[in-house]
Design brief:
Elements lengths: L2 H36 L5 H24 L9 H24 L2 H8 L2 H11 L7 H17 L12 H24 L5 H23 L5 H27 L2 H4 L5 H14 L5 H36 L1
Helix pairs in contact: 1-9, 1-11, 2-3, 2-8, 2-9, 3-4, 3-7, 3-8, 4-11, 5-6, 5-7, 6-12
């Protein structure tokens, strides 16, 4: 490898990591702002609408810059509809979990999504999952079970309903990711992102007729900040994937838990109990183990390809 090629690849990886760190920060900020909005009486359906409507201008500018209006055309509208339905259902569950659970707990349980993705990839995409994948799934779900045990200064367990809703959100996220993996073979990524935010705004707008309330300017400013952060998060997340392999970027996502811990403590005076910390460690270890196995499998496949071509 020439010095120029090495430097170019190093700059690409650094750029991807920088984008990912911004994405992680925006996610933590968005989650904290939405939880703060819930303290002002905002419910999950309203969060869906305001998040989408304030993020759409940011996403539209990025989508047009990425590929113009032609990039927004879709060849598989029904697949988009399914992806949007799954994504909206998972987001509503995630927002409700934010309302019911401590910020760090809701964020940590969200990281069970890769475990559900392993199961769905095996069942839906017929991808082979080895014993190590199933071990990671069991480890992660064990962490969720520990989170539900009593712990902390007050001796309270995480609310069962909140944990179940958070798990449903993670399952929905994994399902949506499975569909997106199929869509990316024929659809521009700008179309996938843009139409998801449009559908979120439409569904959220319908929900407002039934559950919407009038909010003061302070609450609307909080929701606007959350929507703007969501738009930047989506853009930087996508840009990071264009610059750097996901196996390198994925470990940085766990900084979301650090951000949730810090903001939960600073803004909401939330201090995780012992069971939440221990269960979270199990979930993090499970996710990192899956990432390491995927990286190792990819490296072995790459070496085999080089040997066969060499």
């Amino acid at each position: 490898m020439s010095a120029e090629t090495f430097q170019s690849r190093h700059q690409s990886v650094s750029r991807g990591i920088a984008f990912r760190l911004v994405s992680v920060g925006c996610y933590s900020l968005m989650a904290a702002l939405l939880k703060l909005a819930s303290k002002h009486g905002v419910v999950a359906g309203e969060m869906l609408f305001y998040r989408a409507i304030f993020a759409l201008p940011v996403v539209l500018v990025w989508a047009l810059k990425a590929g113009g209006f032609s990039a927004l055309r879709t060849h598989r509208p029904w697949a988009h509809l399914g992806r949007c339905a799954l994504g909206i259902a998972s987001i509503l569950c995630a927002f409700q979990a934010l309302i019911m659970l401590p910020l760090a707990t809701a964020t940590t349980i969200g990281f069970t999504a890769p475990m559900f993705a392993t199961v769905l990839s095996s069942l839906v995409l017929r991808e082979k999952a080895g014993n190590h994948h199933w071990l990671a799934v069991i480890l992660g779900l064990g962490g969720v079970a520990i989170i539900m045990l009593p712990g902390g200064p007050a001796g309270h367990a995480a609310p069962l309903l909140g944990v179940v809703i958070a798990l449903l959100g993670a399952l929905g996220t994994a399902s949506a990711v499975t569909v997106v993996r199929q869509l990316r073979h024929s659809e521009h990524v700008a179309a996938i992102v843009f139409w998801f935010f449009v559908s979120s705004a439409l569904v959220g707008g319908i929900l407002l007729f039934y559950i919407g309330k009038q909010h003061d300017m302070e609450t609307l400013a909080i929701l606007a900040g959350a929507g703007f952060a969501a738009g930047i998060m989506q853009i930087t997340l996508t840009e990071s994937l264009h610059a750097t392999p996901v196996s390198i970027l994925a470990p940085f996502d766990y900084l979301q838990i650090v951000g949730a811990l810090a903001l939960g403590w600073l803004v909401f005076s939330e201090i995780p109990g012992e069971s939440a910390i221990l269960g979270g460690c199990f979930i993090i270890l499970s996710g990192i183990y899956l990432i390491w196995r995927e990286y190792r499998s990819h490296a072995v496949a790459q070496r085999n390809l080089e040997v066969n071509n060499g």
